[in-house]
Design a protein that fits this description.
36% of the residues lie in helices and 21% in strands. It contains 16 helices and 14 strands.
Length: 396
């Protein structure tokens, strides 16, 4: 493949804190129920050492966003989070509009710390509510109940946050449309700026995978999502990504950088990163040591591996991100972020546009294409990974 000019994209930072009170039966993230005392100070020290090793990949860029995920990061004390952010600021330059998000759970213990997290420097909180219905919280194995969920959502604003996200699921075991919409209405009542509303899926290596619950049928799921999108739209929320909805100008800056194929450093046990190296004309994926105990033991060298994304894989890697955005991206971004000319995928673009799945003015799906996103993406896969059941497209 020919090369275009590979440009250095914006840079974000993902921080992984892997501990939880308990492992949820649907969760396939790198999270571990802890026993005894959390090694907060040792882990913060390891995170800062990890970041120091990654500094050559910064390439003089400022940091546009930080996302602290898990696990349950809010199990850490505000003092530890403040130390972590202070240590990061000593190594990296923060942009003037830096978004710092931390995931938190609605349990009473974490709620008491919300205000202190705000004082520590967190300016955006993401609450893992999942449901406001006690029956479904029990089915999902959550440690909070419906009362704590409502109280936590209300307390975020009182703690000084003017920007927060609520995580909600739909398609829960034996859930109907009315119950899914009731969850959305409960979320809307506390006036968040952002909602992540996504379907429960059964993932390998989870308890639900070995003992699957009875989930709604596909037709019901489709009706549920359609009704939910309509409700959110009436309440002023725009669906800017497959499962992300926001008030105007309140999209997650961190996630937007992911979807626009930006760069991100990943520190913490099992964290992944993506780094562009224009001087070498390549893009690499990185991953850190997965097990927390081993990560702490090897703080001097936490890198578990890195791989260059091959030119053949770059089209699907870019499109898997960019086409999740309802507005898509400009065609010029493809060349800037992959280093490949848009002409290399001209045939695929023409076929998708002819089939009415892709808009003509930019790299964005039509409404029909958004509903069949997996089939659209299949057009950009390397031949050896092409699914047999993809929608046939007219030649072009």
């Amino acid at each position: 493949m020919k090369r275009a000019q590979l440009l250095l994209p914006p840079l974000s930072l993902y921080i992984h804190i892997p501990w939880c009170l308990k492992k949820c039966p649907y969760c396939d993230f790198n999270s571990h129920a802890f026993q005894g005392e959390l090694p907060e100070q040792a882990y913060v020290d390891s995170l800062l050492a990890d970041l120091k090793h990654d500094l050559p990949w910064v390439q003089s860029r400022e940091l546009t966003s930080i996302f602290i995920g898990g696990g349950t990061p809010s199990l850490f004390s505000p003092k530890s989070i403040e130390k972590l952010l202070a240590g990061i600021s000593e190594q990296l330059h923060f942009s003037g509009t830096l978004e710092i998000t931390m995931e938190a759970n609605p349990g009473t213990f974490e709620m008491e710390k919300f205000r202190d997290f705000r004082h520590a420097g967190i300016n955006r909180l993401s609450l893992g509510i999942q449901s406001f219905n006690k029956k479904y919280l029990l089915a999902l194995g959550r440690v909070h109940d419906d009362t704590e969920a409502l109280t936590a959502a209300a307390n975020v604003r009182a703690a000084g946050f003017d920007n927060f996200n609520l995580d909600l699921m739909f398609g829960l075991p034996q859930q109907g449309i009315d119950e899914a919409l009731a969850d959305l209405r409960a979320a809307l009542a506390v006036e968040p700026e952002h909602l992540s509303w996504y379907q429960l899926t059964i993932e390998p290596n989870t308890m639900f995978y070995s003992k699957p619950p009875a989930l709604p049928e596909d037709d019901l799921l489709s009706d549920m999502q359609e009704a939910g999108v309509e409700l959110l739209s009436r309440q002023g929320f725009s669906r800017y990504e497959v499962s992300a909805y926001s008030k105007p100008n309140k999209q997650s800056l961190h996630n937007l950088n992911y979807w626009r194929f930006g760069d991100y450093l990943g520190i913490g046990a099992g964290a992944h990163g993506k780094i562009t190296l224009p001087a070498e004309q390549r893009i690499v994926r990185t991953r850190k040591i997965r097990q927390p105990a081993s990560y702490l033991e090897h703080a001097d060298n936490t890198l578990a591996g890195s791989e260059t994304i091959s030119p053949a894989e770059l089209p699907i890697e870019f499109m898997m991100n960019a086409l999740r955005l309802s507005a898509g991206t400009e065609e010029s971004l493809y060349e800037q972020r992959t280093g490949l000319p848009i002409s290399d995928i001209a045939g695929s673009l023409q076929r998708l546009r002819h089939a009415g799945l892709l808009k003509k003015e930019n790299l964005a799906t039509t409404d029909k294409g958004y509903n069949f996103l997996n089939n659209v993406l299949a057009e950009f896969m390397p031949d050896e990974h092409m699914p047999e059941n993809r929608i046939p497209l007219a030649p072009g």
